[in-house]
Amino acid sequence: MKNNPSHLAPYWSTISMEKHITPEQQHTGKISVIIVTWNAYSWIANCLKSLKSDLSAFSHSIIIVDNASSDQTVSYIKTQFPEIILIENKTNNGFAQACNTALQKSCSEYVLFLNPDTEVIPGMTKSLLAFMEKHQEAGAIGPTLLNPDGTLQLSGNTFPNLKNILSESFFLDRLFPNSRFFGLHKMSHIDRSKVLKVDWTMGSCLFVRREALDRAGNFDSNYFLFFEETDLCLRLRNAGYEIYLLPGARLIHFGGASSPELYNAEKIIHYHKSLFYYFRKHMPHQLIFLKMILFSRSLLRIILWLTLYPANAKTAAEKLSGYGKVLKLCF
């Protein structure tokens, strides 16, 4: 770690809460788990049951921030897991801001950010904690993510840059996944049976050292969805810490499964808005070139989905709507 790490101010948020958090509930143990939910009723039971089993050997608390769900998420948590600290937001202000709200209620040594659409494979928490305790240079680490069928999700990545985005835009990373040049962004050519040092890893399961957060700052709440963990890992790296991906810790991520239907118009728009913000913040001189690439990328996908429209009208309509609005964002 560097002797004089950069110190960036935390991005605190002020979201109104339905439930008062007493001083006794503010966690001072080893691990705080923070989960952000939005209409996650179909996922949350499996997530919490597997998580609580894996945490049983450690002093911990679980803090859930619900972003104004309209399903049974909140009522289920209240009745089935009354010991969990539940913060109910009246509006959906995004993942980053919800995480920052929960962080204000926790002062544990480590923080585990976890998506509700996950299932913890036994031993994950133990592996993550053991690695952190042994490697003081580690600011954040992630487990190996698996699809529901047991296949690998590529979760350890290099930071976004024009070359990587260009490769993705024209499907070169998929055509040449083992190429060190075209596959660099998702590191698809790397042996993942060993511990990997990466630029950033996915926020669906991110285990972070509290001391590192204090130095680098919390999530930037200007990100509503996507790239908030990328931004955080960049600031952790700038503060002198390393980011790792562990093969011995494993997690099933249901929402990360490859499905065109999951990436709807709303997510397409949020993805590109966050990517634009990331470049404006960290690489403003490259923003004009990013817009040129993403304009071409969106146009190509509009053409492709127009050809697929007769076979899959509903999904195609979502894609066309999303990428059509991205074209406007490029101007």
Automatic annotation (TrEMBL):
Glycosyltransferase 2-like domain: residues covered: 32-192
GO molecular function: glycosyltransferase activity
Classification via InterPro entries: Glyco_trans_2-like, Nucleotide-diphossugar_trans
Keyword Transferase: yes
Broad class of enzyme this protein falls into: transferase
Keyword rRNA-binding attached: no
Keyword annotations: Glycosyltransferase, Transferase
Listed Gene3D superfamilies: Spore Coat Polysaccharide Biosynthesis Protein SpsA, Chain A
Matching SUPFAM superfamilies: Nucleotide-diphospho-sugar transferases (SSF53448)
Any Pfam family: Glycos_transf_2
Entry EC number(s): 2.4.1.-
Protein name per Swiss-Prot or TrEMBL: Similar to glycosyl transferase family 2
Source organism per UniProt: Kuenenia stuttgartiensis
